[in-house]
Each structure stands twice: as C-alpha cells, then as structure tokens.
C-alpha cells in the first residue's frame, strides 16, 4: 500500500534525556510525525545533579522545560510533547500505553527511558539510602544533609549526635566521589562556625567502595590522585568493602585488612546511594513483547544499529541500552560495552534518528560507533581528574586545580541555554570566593528517619548555650 | 537579688521573618543571650514568593539560610539558632516548648511567628485552593499551574480540558493581583505555541474579590488603574463576589448585577487562595497562658510598646500582632491598625529589641510609631501601581511602566545578599527580553485531582514533597 500523502510515519520517543533530545532534534526537520513522551516536564543536566543535592546550584540552573528547549520544533508542526508515564510497550501491536490508559500507535519507536538505582536485591535500603537520578532525589538528599546538622545541633545524646554528624556515601564512581568531596567541603568550610553546640568540622564523611579503588573506570594513576585529593578533604575512603545492611541505625559492611575479614557497623542517619544502576522497567516490557534480551543490570541488548533483533522498528538508546561500539570493520565490536555517559547517549540518539530515516528511504542502517572524548570527574573545590582522548596525540591525563577548571568550563559549556550558563558561572564564582552554597534552602519540614529523637536532657551542661 | 555577673538575660525570638531577623540584629551586640527558633532553615523574602509560584524565580533567589545571614552574630557568641517548631508558649512558666518536648526558659520573649491562611471556617477548601505563605506552598502552586496545561494537552473531553485551562484566584489584594496578572502572562506569552493540541492563549484567568474593588488598601483611583491593567492582560476581574464552595469541580460564588443576586459555578481544577489571613496558632497559646486578647483574625492585641498587658516581658510583633501606631502624644493612637507588611514588621522588630534593652536598664519602654513609606503592587509585565508617602511633599501616586520599574528596583534593593540581587536582576532582564520563565521546572509527578496534595489543616507543618 502506498502511503497516503497526509500520513507521515509516526515516531514515538520515550524519554527526554540526552539521547531522546538529540533524537528529536535530528528528526524534527524530516517528514515524520514525532511524539515525545517524558514523565517530567524538564530536561535535566544530570552531570551537575549532585550540585543541586549539595545546595550549590538551584534546580532551574541545571534543568529546562522540554517545551521551551523544543519550542521551535513544536512550532514547526511535527512534534507533540506529552508529559506522561509510559506504563508498557506493546511491540507486537506497535503501540505504547500511557498511565491514563491511552494507547499511542507508532511506526518507529526510540526507547530512551534511562536507568534507575539498583540496590542489588535490597530495595528496603532505598528508604534510608536515596540515590541520585531525579530533581526530587536531589531535593531529598539536600533536605537530609542540611537537616542532619540541624538535628545534631539540637541533640543532647552524644551517640545520637555522632550519628547525625556521620555521612556515608556508598559507591566511589564519579557521583559518589563528587558527593563525598562536596559533603566534606560543606562540613569543613560552608558550615564552619555557623553552629553553637556542634563543630561542623568534626563531621565524618565515609566513602565505601566494593572494588579496590575509587573511580574504577579511570586509569589506576588517576584513581590514586583522586584518593589523595579525597584524603586532603578529610574524606574517610574505604575500598574493598561490601555493604551487607542499611537501616535506620546505619550501614554494616564486610571488609578485610590483608587476609583478615571483618564486619563493621557505621552508625549514621544519612546515607547516599551511588553504587548500582539498573535499566528502566520498560526494558522488561520489551523483553516480554519484543523478545528483547536483557543483561544482568536489566539493560536491553541491542543490535549493532541499536535496534532489536525481531523488531527493527524499535531502537533502544542511552543508559537503557547494552550497546557495543563497532569500527568500520563490522562485525568486530569493541570488547568493552559503551559506558553510561551523556556523550554516548547523545551519539546513540543521533544514530537511531538517522537509521530511522535510512529505513524510510529503504537504505541499510549503520552500526553504532562510540567516539570517546575522555572522562572527567571532580572531587570538591579545586580538585578534579581529567583523562582526555585527544586525536593523534593520544591520552592526555592531568589532575588538580587545572583539571578542576577544565571540568568546570566543560560542564558549563554543555549546559543548555545561555541564561543557565551565566547563572551557573556566577554561582560558582560566588561559591568560590565565599565558600557559601547559596541553595542551602529546604522547603519541607526537616527529614527524620528511623527512631524518634529522644528528648534532650534539660540540664545537660554541654547543651546549655551559655551559663 | 543582684544579677550574677555571668548570667546574661535570656531572650528567645520565635520566627525569622522580617520582624524576628531585625530583632536579632538589634540585640546581637547587647549583653543578652539570644536563641532564635524557626521551623525552616531559611529567611524568606515573602513579597517575591508569587514569582517562585509562577516559575519566574528559583527558591534560592528569594531565600537565604538563617545561619548564613546571621553567621557573624553566631560567631560573636551570644546567638543560638535552632530549627524547630515551637508547639506552645508557657508564659506563666516563662518557657517555650519545642516539637521534641524540649523546654527552653526565657527572661524576655519576642513572638514573631507570622500568619497563615484563613479559609473563613472552611478548612476543607485548603486541599483545592492552596495559599501562598511558604516555599512549599509556592512549589505546590507551581506544580499545579504547570501541570494543568500538561493535563489539558492530554485531555480529550472538552469540558474537562476547559476546566484544566481555567484558573481562579480568590482575593484581589496585592498577592491575588500579582498571581492573576502573572498567570495571564504565562498563558498569553510564555506558553504560547508550545502546545500542539491546545492553545494556551485560550486559558481563562478569573480574579474573584468580595469587596467592590481590587487592591482595597490603595486609593480608589489606583484600584481603577490596576483593574484596567488586569483587563488589558485578559484577566476576568469579578468584584462583589462571595465564594460559597470550593471543591474538585471548581468554585461557586454569590454575586450580584445591580440588585439582582445570582449564584455562579466556575469549573476549574486550579484555584489559588489569596483571601484570608489568620495569626499563627501560637497566638492561642498566648491567650491561654498570658491572658492575651486576640482579634477576629487571631492576632494578638498588644500594648503601645508591643508587649502584653500582664506580661511586659513578652512582645508580639509582625503579622501576628494587632498593633496600632502612636504619635508622641500617647495615648492617642492612629485609628487604622498597622498593616501586615514587611516595613511594619521590621520596625516592630527594632522597637521590641530596643524596649527589652530599655527594661534591662530600668528605663521606660517606648510606644510603637509606624512610619508608612507607601505601598507598591505589581500586576504583571510592565504594570504596577505606586502610592508613596513622601515627607513634606505628601502623597506621590503613579502607575504603569515607570511604576513597574520602581517596584522592580525597590524589591531587588531589599533582597538579602548581593548574589541574590544580581541573580534576580539577570532573571528579570532575561524574562523581560524572552518572555521565558526559567524556573518552569516541576520535580514531582504531575498534580492529579483526588487524593489531597496539601495537608488540609492550616496548622500542619509543610510536609508535602518538594516540587
């Protein structure tokens, strides 16, 4: 059947992260009818989300309304944006189901639904150890961190006070290292001398890591530098530690000193989870209706062109895709999987869009080739590690203050919108000069996990302001 | 008994709004031991709160951590800041009780606990018509407004869609006028052409007012100007309307056309309450233990020096005080009560602090004299009314673009902190040029009618999730 002149192929894109947004932009001038579905109203610059969690930036500085970013594409007339949750994908029926029961048909589908936290089968830990994926997560962690110091100031029991002043970050990838470094900075500088009954400098920040080094995806020399920089910030880094329990009393883990195994309990009220990542539940929907294969982390194993084996009209990109990079000499793939980073998601978004257009023209699709420009991670004020892949030259690795400056400008450069860049630059310059974190503002009532506070003793001498 | 040399008089200040903050500053160099208690961790610049609710500003732009504002005073050693909710004042025992049961003694007390919404005996309306007093309120309203347009875009039923695209503001004081004007601006400009299925310009903004004119505290000529400016922004202003019901279907009110009475129902899913104000529940605590007299709005009737008749060591200031202004010729007071505005609260905070110091020196206290510098109200982009009391010259009244500029700079001038002023100026310049409202970002799931989003009781602490 020849296509009717008025019937444009329908493309549905699920998720407006880095991958989904690039796919929309790449398709927006083509003769297709695009529907973009996201469960929030904004695109989020996730690499700086830890700054919202640690009160260095406000939410609007690192996020922008989807309708604003794509206002020109919407005006052009072939893009519909819906704020909705996709509850299921029916690949056999070529449709997706929304939270209100609405069913939308597609001719081509791009699933860019991203990843969520994984607690390795211990979902009960989530209450005590929030992860960091959404703005709501960041506000939750901000409220817990700021509330912990406030509780400590009001607390008469020394054990309880010590628990409020202990912070544990689980997982020493880039997010965990950034969180731990910034938490230490807050305790050492931002809050210094702002309390009467406690000394914020005595707060303890512990970074737990299961493997034997921090920033495991970097070369060992940079891991070592990062560890030294964390130590300088007074972060207590403990590698080779496997968390066994997280509850309202704190974190228990198994570790070893040489050959001696031991189990340790860290009493704390504030835990940040930066360890496990799992593909969006929509992966299971694809496994059920499109026979997609999932890897151990719940990510969808894709073909070289990012589509599914039995459903070449369905593409999976970004953090939800278990993809490999292919050189021009298909079928030999890189042995390493493509990492879950924003440049990879953007590149996949562009390729999935291009492959849809190729199929519409009955041309063969192309395989994904990941261009790795390097990795950056920051540790706190003035410290970072940089590992760049420079064409011809090879690897360029450095750490310290210049790495931090490089990290700063690279991140601000990729922020969406001129206003955001300007405001973030001002915020950083301000924070750099004053040590203040301007977004230290919590709208909710203070967070209170676990057991209720015991009423402070009336006459405890160390809690009386001044006698 | 002579005071012991090491025993400084204890002053407790409840609330860190405009009044409480001024009182702390005025006392911080005196030989007193101050404890400041607030249930949030921040001071809020309430006159710009409607900008957070309408996504023009981020929360940190109009708020600052109390510990940061008062860091020098804390360092000086006679100020303790506690984030806590005061649940009761025991004036007979000269102590206050905190949420965890802790009891703090005082020699002098300043109650600056402010006001909350009043639904005139209809607390059940709170679920459907949130008021605007806290950052949590502002995030709630922001989520509802942005979510309403998103729901309308997804909605197939024309009646339901029309209800999502109708916005009702109850109360045409400064907050109601600002909210209605800005909502209209969002529909007419910010969101224009950013949807496919709906036309945001067809959204309807209704401003309901019980009396016969908007901005009732201004002179009639300025009320008339404000009404014209609202009309130009396509706000449907209806005066002489008494709300009888607010529920999930909309707002019902009684009105009249000439002598003909009628009842009307406005179908809407989004109502903002800007009508009634009631004193903090701590007023009732003072009535019970200090024989304080409350007025109809639950405010505490104070003596000319802002203290209580039976308890000269207890001062009530700001929105919680029913105060009058006295000239030098006591006891003749101004016939009009002091309005609930920030300059009045600041002046009361300074006087209460000074009167405490006078009493410590066994000097007579002074009566409150309100210095009224005038009133400002803005209506939307480029429109405002200004009524200044200029010494010698008399009243200076103007409206329109220059009034808006005056309003803008006056508000930015009084914002706390250089960074905030700079960021707010940039945000406004940006919004002015682009019509974009950069904080149009909602962290939670979209608002859905049915289960309440806000705690239905006015007295409940802010516990809803942060938007």
UniProtKB/TrEMBL annotation, chains A, B:
All residue ranges annotated as the FAD/NAD(P)-binding domain in the record: 10-336
The keyword Transmembrane belongs to this UniProt entry's keyword annotation: yes
One Gene Ontology molecular-function label: oxidoreductase activity
Residues of the External alternative NADH-ubiquinone oxidoreductase-like C-terminal domain: 374-433
Cross-referenced InterPro entries: FAD/NAD-bd_sf, FAD/NAD-binding_dom, NDH-2, NDH2-like_C
Transmembrane segment boundaries: 401-418
Coiled coil (UniProt feature): none
Keyword Nucleotidyltransferase appears in the UniProt entry: no
Region annotated Disordered, chain positions: 446-467
Low complexity bias spans: 456-467
E.C. numbers: 1.6.5.9
Keyword vocabulary terms for this entry: FAD, Flavoprotein, Membrane, NAD, Oxidoreductase, Transit peptide, Transmembrane, Transmembrane helix
Catalytic activity: a quinone + NADH + H(+) = a quinol + NAD(+)
Top-level lineage group: Bacteria
Family: Belongs to the NADH dehydrogenase family.
Full protein name: NADH:ubiquinone reductase (non-electrogenic)
Source organism: Piscinibacter gummiphilus
């Amino acid at each position: 059947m020849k296509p009717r002149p008025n019937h444009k192929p329908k493309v549905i894109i699920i998720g407006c992260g880095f991958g989904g947004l690039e796919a929309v932009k790449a398709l927006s001038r083509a003769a297709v009818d695009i529907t973009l579905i996201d469960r929030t109203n904004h695109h989020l610059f996730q690499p700086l989300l830890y700054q919202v969690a640690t009160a260095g930036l406000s939410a609007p500085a690192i996020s922008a309304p989807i309708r604003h970013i794509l206002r020109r594409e919407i005006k052009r007339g072939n893009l519909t944006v819906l704020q909705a949750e996709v509850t299921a994908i029916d690949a056999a029926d070529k449709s997706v189901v929304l939270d209100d029961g609405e069913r939308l048909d597609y001719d081509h589908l791009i699933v860019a639904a991203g990843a969520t936290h994984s607690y390795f089968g211990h979902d009960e830990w989530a209450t005590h150890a929030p992860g960091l994926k959404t703005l709501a997560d960041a506000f939750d962690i901000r409220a817990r961190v700021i509330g912990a110091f406030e509780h400590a100031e009001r607390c008469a029991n020394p054990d309880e006070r010590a628990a409020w002043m202990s912070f544990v970050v689980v997982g020493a990838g880039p997010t965990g290292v950034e969180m731990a470094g910034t938490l230490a900075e807050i305790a050492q500088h931002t809050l210094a001398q702002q309390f009467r009954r406690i000394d914020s400098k005595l707060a303890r920040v512990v970074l737990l890591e299961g493997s034997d080094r921090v920033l495991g995806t970097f070369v060992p020399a940079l891991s070592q530098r990062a560890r030294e920089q964390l130590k300088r910030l007074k972060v207590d880094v403990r590698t080779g530690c496997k968390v066994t329990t997280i509850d309202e009393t704190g974190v228990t883990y198994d570790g070893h000193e040489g050959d001696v195994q031991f189990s340790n309990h860290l009493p704390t009220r504030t835990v940040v989870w930066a360890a496990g990542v799992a593909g969006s539940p929509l992966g299971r929907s694809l496994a059920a209706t499109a026979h997609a294969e999932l890897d151990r982390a719940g990510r969808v194993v894709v073909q070289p062109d990012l589509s599914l084996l039995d459903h070449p009209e369905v593409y999976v990109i970004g953090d939800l895709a278990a993809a490999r990079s292919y050189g021009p000499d298909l079928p030999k793939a890189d042995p390493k999987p493509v990492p879950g980073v924003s440049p990879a998601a953007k590149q996949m978004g562009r390729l999935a869009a291009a492959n849809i257009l190729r199929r519409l023209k009955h041309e063969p699709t192309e395989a994904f080739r990941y261009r790795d420009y390097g990795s950056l991670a920051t540790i706190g004020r003035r410290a970072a590690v940089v590992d760049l892949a420079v064409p011809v030259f090879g690897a360029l690795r450095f750490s310290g203050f210049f790495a931090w400056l490089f990290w700063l400008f690279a991140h601000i450069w990729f922020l969406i919108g001129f206003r955001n860049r300007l405001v973030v630059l001002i915020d950083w310059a301000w924070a750099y000069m004053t040590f203040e974190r301007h977004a230290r503002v919590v709208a909710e009532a203070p967070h209170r996990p676990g057991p209720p506070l015991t009423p402070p003793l009336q006459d405890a001498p160390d809690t009386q302001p001044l006698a």
